[in-house]
User: What shape does this take?
Amino acid sequence: MITPEDKALLEKKGISEAQIAEQLACFEKGFPFLQLDGAASIEKGILAPAENELNTYLQAWDTYKQSDKNIVKFVPASGAASRMFKNLFEFLGADYDIPTTDFEKKFFNNIQDFAFYTDLNAACEKNNGKGIEALVNESNYKPVVANLLEEAGLNYGALPKGLLKFHKYDNGARTPLEEHLVEGALYAAGTTGKVNVHFTVSTEHRDLFKALVEEKVAEYAQKYNIEYSVSFSEQKPSTDTIAADMENKPFRDNGKLLFRPGGHGALIENLNDLDADIVFIKNIDNVVPDRLKDETVTYKKLIAGVLVTLQKQAFDYLELLDSGKYTHEQLEEIIRFVQQDLCCRKTDIKELEDAELVIYLRNKLNRPMRVCGMVKNVGEPGGGPFLAYNPDGTISLQILESSQIDMKDEEKKAMFEKGTHFNPVDLVCAVRDYKGNKFDLVKYVDKATGFISYKSKSGKELKALELPGLWNGAMSNWNTVFVEVPLGTFNPVKTVNDLLREQHQ
Assistant: This one.
């Protein structure tokens, strides 16, 4: 089945034949749904700190920052912005020339409010000899959109979101990449004044990202009196997955095996390669202008404060267990910590002898830890916080997507629909053990949480394999804690018209 040409391709990508066999078996047997215990809520698994606790956690983070620990801000930024402009691409291809849909009308009625207006106007003048206003006055709308999306103009239809101008300021416009540099300065600067920011980018855009950083970084370093260390990585070719045909055989395009990117779950490898103690993770398009940053910064510090507080407690308990000098009362205290603070329950824990109990507790404490901000559910699509059963029979907090839940089971469907909160991708991660060694994050992935999606290539249907998502199955075996954060910290940009929302003006 595997040809010499296939072998050469596998070698080039760094993928073994055993991995291919494992992936094809996933297509055969599919993925099991996760067993739910219920949706997480304020009463059950989501922490909502009171005002006095808030200050304690903020203080804990400020104290931690004064140590010699390495803090990194990690931003997945490889996604192209093409989906953001789906409606405008449709307008370009439509058999009418005048804005007709509500979306098209909104775009043109408010076009002056976009941060890229000046650049777009210049592109129209260069390519069409007229500015936006003149073109619109003669009902010549399509050239304006063509100048925005196509290569001869701004080429926004082919660029990643991180490089588009999102926000207007008195001294010009900012891209999401710049907003993340500013955020990093406000909550992730260590005692030396150094801010580490890491972007995962696609190969074709890496040089553009680097050029923008080189152009802007000195300005922000001076403004915030800090030093930046900005690095980049790309999704590894070894994390691509094989595509299958409808018979679950390897899909071939002109005789060649077809591979596809494994989705954001592949980034666990990039995260694993970082030299860090604490890592902040947030999507590239979830940024706000400076006038709204205070709330974002406060809550970022809060969830980081919760993380370092819990981590310190877990480390103290691990040292106690290692010493062998503990009482039964102390073991009971550790059980309470694992059950109440880390929200990890084992139903038959009372049946364990002390020696078994120590092994169990040690195993549960000694793993990577993350604290995730959760916002109140406002009907956005995407994952949410749940209590789910683990392969070892324990119940812990997980972020689940709807595809991981059996919607045909009425009880499970009701749990999903009752969910009060939503995952905005706002994480702080602790990735070293109590002895200071880095965890190998790949070992904590639950491989049974991938999913299969249906695509097509050259008019033929195919099955694609998505790896366990970065904040879903890839972190399934971490200690997870959820904290409620305000809706104001979640401002994603899914379509170009989202930039017209008050939060982005």
User: Anything to note?
Assistant: The chain has 15 helices and 20 strands. Residues 20 and 242 are 7 Å apart (CA to CA).
